[in-house]
Specification:
By secondary structure, the chain is α/β, with parallel strands linked by helices. It has 16 helices and 14 strands. The longest helix has 31 residues. The radius of gyration is 25 Å and the shape is globular. It binds nicotinamide-adenine-dinucleotide, L-histidinol (HSO) and zinc ion (ZN). Zinc ion (ZN) binds next to loops. Catalyzes the sequential NAD-dependent oxidations of L-histidinol to L-histidinaldehyde and then to L-histidine.
Amino acid sequence: MKTILNPQKKDWNKILERPTKKVGDIEATVNEIFTDIQANGDAGVAKYTEKFDGIALDSNLVSVAEIEEAISLVPKELKEAIQQAKENITKFHAAQKTEKVSVETTKGVQCWQEKRPIQKVGLYVPGGTAPLLSTVLMLSIPAKIAGCKEIVLCSPPNKEGKLPPAILYAANLCGVTKIIKVGGIQAIAAYTFGTETIPQVYKIFGPGNQFVTVAKQLATKYGVAIDMPAGPSELLIVADDSANASFVAADLLSQAEHGIDSQVVLVSTSKKLIDAVSIEIEKQLLELPRIEITQKAIHNSTSIFVENDAIALELINEYGPEHFIVCTKNNAFYIENIENAGSVFIGNYTPESAGDYASGTNHTLPTNGFTKAYSGVNLDSFMKSITFQEISKEGIQNIGKSIEIMAAAEGLQAHKNAVTLRLKELL
Ligand SMILES: NC(=O)c1ccc[n+]([C@@H]2O[C@H](COP(=O)([O-])OP(=O)(O)OC[C@H]3O[C@@H](n4cnc5c(N)ncnc54)[C@H](O)[C@@H]3O)[C@@H](O)[C@H]2O)c1
Ligand SMILES: N[C@H](CO)Cc1c[nH]c[nH+]1
Ligand SMILES: [Zn+2]
């Protein structure tokens, strides 16, 4: 990790540039695959599964027998861990249900809003560098609580043409209605257009690498909604002398481990802490099995020394990290004033991994600065609001004149007439 001392504000964006590929290069590939799958359906999907995942499949649909086999293969200990995570994720997302909003805006004019589940949703579970069974829980649990009817899940097959048992076990446990062995751009294209085996969906959810993220963004041009751009993992930690350097290093390494395009950043008002973390990273790295990936991501990453908490906060809000760990003497200051972050982790005993797996919050979060405008996945992501209104005779008399005047001001006579006729009838 390189260390930068007191950078000038004008240099922040350059220093914190995300290590992602140029989107333009990926867009051409994504466009080509979308066109092919729109025209050729499952045959197109199979072609790209063979090209990118190196496996030729007769069918990409997961069978009941495969699910039964998976259930028998998952160790009891992992089943119990999944159960605890499921309970916490369920509690946190079920608590997000809201009451119907209903207001009489003017006497006789009743307006209300009700939520409805999105009927057909497509979940994407990454599997390129690691099979993210936890993502199955993060997406299917809120989908089920929201009441979505068709919950489809796509994830890339391994070299044996299978999905890992834990992914199938979790998907079955959480009420996924169809599981398909397909990953990457081809999965997103299939959700967008529908194929013989993969249903077209109304909204696509889930994280993925840059290919998946750019493909999701293209899906919106064809009228399919997406949760948000949730690309390569990011973590920013603000820590001072009150933090445990070994814990800080472990947290930075945990997100660097995701892939070479992950980005981790340490911001500190203590040079002593920056040095201690750097030594700890080198020590802990040697013990990690994914050392090559993790080392590359760490190489892309930066420690930044700043004079005080106010500067640190300004820099953090400008960057807008996906994950934000706060471990300082002034935690309350950061918690009150953070504007742009996906999920915040507070204090020495709140590792980011807790949110990845089992505390209850959702780990599908905006990256690449999209925290400035997007929320992470939550119960509302799987629902939409419909507004209703009912106006009585008294109500139309109370607001009719204003509608007539405004419609006339816009030059829309037919709009005005729709009110005028009713008001006349009531005279
Ligand atoms: N933001 C979040 O909420 C969040 C959550 C979890 C994971 N993540 C991120 O998700 C990502 C998962 O990435 P992954 O690669 O492990 O799995 P993935 O499933 O997203 O991507 C794997 C697929 O990419 C496709 N692919 C690979 N190389 C390609 C190429 N050259 N051209 C076209 N397609 C290609 C293949 O089809 C493969 O199946 C990581 O970057 C991780 O940090 C983000
Ligand atoms: N940190 C990832 C979100 O960026 C989620 C995850 C899943 N498994 C481990 N981590
Ligand atoms: Zn993670």
